[in-house]
Amino acid sequence: MTASVYGHNLGRRLRSDQAPALTTRSLRSTELAVTECRNDAPEFGLSGSLPGEDAYLVSFKLRDYSQCECWEEGRPVITADVHSGATYLYDLRRDPRYVIDKPFHSVFFYLPRTALNAIGQQAGTRRVGDLAYQPGIGSDDDIVRHLSVSLLAGLHRPHEVNQLFVDHLLLAIGSHVIQAYGGLDVSGPVRGGLAAWQTRRACELLAADLEGKLSLQRLAAEFGLSTSHFSRAFRISTGLPPHRWLMQQRVSKAKQLLSDRRLPLSEVAIAAGFANQSHLTRVFSSIAGISPGAWRRESGSR
């Protein structure tokens, strides 16, 4: 069986010792992943050959790389400057490689065609053909940039990431790639929200799993819905996507616990589903506009 091209399998071929990755699964249980690869002092040479499979890598560049010699199918095809902030596509059927002779830093999204087809199927569109791209030529893609930056914090602090957040963003990148580079409309028909009982049950399931281990796929399957349909309907019904609703519940739980001044913040953090006290402080402050300690002091003086 071919090793999927993300995480360590991708990092070692690019000579990146650190290659943290986050994954999710499509409707057909095919993995999608994001990997951060970086090498500040590389040795000269051609990158390792990638396993040939019907999949794409979508890469967001975080560092300029002048005169990059790109290869496909065993031969050089172009030498061009790679610019920080640009997005590049690689077809793994063509064995994409490049000459490593300078420091690099990139985010790579691993998108098998089976996963892209599953995402398209949920939106009621046809199968995905070849994606449109030119080897070694980048594009200015605001959505890939935004999603890459959003996922970087999770790649650096995976213990703080809830699976709903990873599912949401990786499925979003798949939908975007199908539309932007495959020419397919995956917006899907506009539907209403969840039924009242579905909204109540979905909120119960999320509230019972404040640590965020419940996947978007399992949550949607509870109601016999696709992940994209469930996410849209949940947002219509509650005003928030599932991962943001979960964060609000964590903060609400933390506020309840903070009323007991005997509880240290570290214990409040764990009991409310956060990884640690610093994680609590970052999320609480971003949502409540005040740190947990300050909120406790102010609530005590009311």
Quick summary:
42% of the residues lie in helices and 19% in strands.
Structure, described:
By secondary structure, the protein is α+β, with helices and mostly antiparallel strands. Helices cover 42% and strands 19% of the residues. The protein has eleven helices and nine strands. The protein has helices at 8-13, 113-122, 142-156, 163-182, 196-207, 216-221, 227-238, 242-258, 265-271, 277-288, 292-300; strands at 21-25, 31-39, 45-46, 55-61, 65-72, 75-82, 87-91, 97-100, 104-112. The strands form two sheets. It has a five-stranded antiparallel beta sheet with strand order 1-2-9-4-7. Helix 3 runs antiparallel to helix 4, helix 8 (242-258) packs antiparallel against helix 9 and helix 8 (242-258) packs across helix 10. The longest helix is centred in the middle third of the chain and has 20 residues, at 163-182. The radius of gyration is 21 Å and the shape is globular. The mean pLDDT is 89.
Key features of this structure:
globular, 302 residues, 19% strand, 11 helices, alpha+beta
Secondary-structure element series: HEEEEEEEEEHHHHHHHHHH
Radius of gyration: 21 Å
Approximate helicity band: 40-55%
Tell me the number of strands: 9
Question: Overall mean pLDDT score?
Answer: 89
The 3D shape can be described as globular
Find the structural class using helix and strand composition. Answer: alpha+beta
* Main beta sheet strand tally, sense and closure: 5 strands, antiparallel
The order of strands across the largest sheet is 1-2-9-4-7
Give the count of helical stretches: 11
